[in-house]
Amino acid sequence: MENNFNNFDNQDLSLRKSTIIQERINLISTHMYKQYLEYEKSMLNMNEVFSKMKSNIGVIIDSLKQSFSSRGIATQNINYEIDSSGTVIVINILWHQISILIRYNDFPQALKREEERMFASRIIAIQGNYFEILKKVKDNDIEPILEFETASLYIPSEKSKPAIMKIKGLNKESPQSQIDAPRDFLLKVIELVCGGGLEHKEWVKKNITFDI
To answer: What's the whole-model pTM score?
Structure first.
């Protein structure tokens, strides 16, 4: 009889443990499923915004060519190229190069902010030719790429919510309507890169130590 009671207690304890595990697993899976749904929706919105960027870039390049041509400057080095995967735009404007890319959106990620987190997909603008930079870094490693970042555009899952533009070095969010963002982000990035200028490099003496 005592063994029967012990077996019943063990079964009851095992059942309670199983119930607790299932409850906690359900909470985790519900939380992650919500993130996954936001990720899917934000990816759809991002692809739509990026597709409009690819449509807008031709108009912008033509406008740049007209503007420089009217000033007597040759325009053969003003052009753009979209890679075969359709995920990278490389823009050449005389001596400047800019790349706009939608890579590195492989899983749900949130925009870092003090207030409530916003899960969003990210369009990155970098200074330079992405494919030339990629030769020097490990594939799918975003950190070295971000050294060349100019700005990023974060696209949320809800179309009614604004996209968020963040310029590197400025701790500031600039809301952009998802309708105007494809044009305005491209123009802002071109302004940031071409509105500055390159500086002559100078020789810097390095300290050399000799082992004795």
So the answer is: 0.85
Q: Which of 32, 207, 203, 196 is nearest to 98 (CA)?
A: 196
Confidence of residue 5 (pLDDT cuts 50, 70, 90): very low
Total domain count, the chain: 1
**Distance between first and last Cα of the chain:** 84
pLDDT in tens, 7-23: 555 666 677 778 888 99
Query: What is each CA distance from 36 to 43, 92, 124, 155, 156, in whole angstroms?
Result: 10, 36, 21, 15, 13
Percent of the chain with pLDDT over 90: 71
CA of residue 54 relative to chain centroid, distance:
16
Phi, psi (5° rounding) for residue 93?
-130, 95
The torsion region of residue 170 among left (phi > 0), alpha (psi -120 to 50) and beta comes to beta
Considering the domain boundaries, does residue 42 fall inside one?
yes
Range of the domain at 168: 35-194
Instruction: Answer whether residue 203 is part of any domain.
Output: no
